[in-house]
Specification:
The protein is an all-alpha fold. The chain is 88% helix and 0% strand.
Length: 85
């Protein structure tokens, strides 16, 4: 079975075209995945920053309430002196 050089060239061209289009599709899919991954990473970073800010606010509020409670306790002790026997 002798192959005609033109037939081999046509087969080679078809194969190259097929692989080239396949690579282009794969590149497009990879680019889309990278884009989605970047969006998820950005959303995660934003949510993390919001959570950390909320936790910091809650900590400040808890410290303020603890200081307020301590101050009230000190005032109560000053107003009602203890009776000692």
């Amino acid at each position: 079975m002798a192959s005609d050089p033109n037939t081999r060239q046509l087969a080679r061209n078809r194969a190259q075209t097929h692989f080239k289009s396949s690579e282009q599709r794969e590149d497009a899919v990879r680019a889309e995945i990278d884009k989605e991954r970047a969006a998820v990473d950005a959303k995660t970073a934003k949510l993390r920053a919001l959570r950390l800010a909320k936790e910091a606010e809650e900590k400040v509020e808890a410290e303020r309430q603890a200081a307020e409670k301590t101050e009230k306790a000190k005032q109560r002790l000053k107003k009602s002196p203890e009776k000692r026997a």
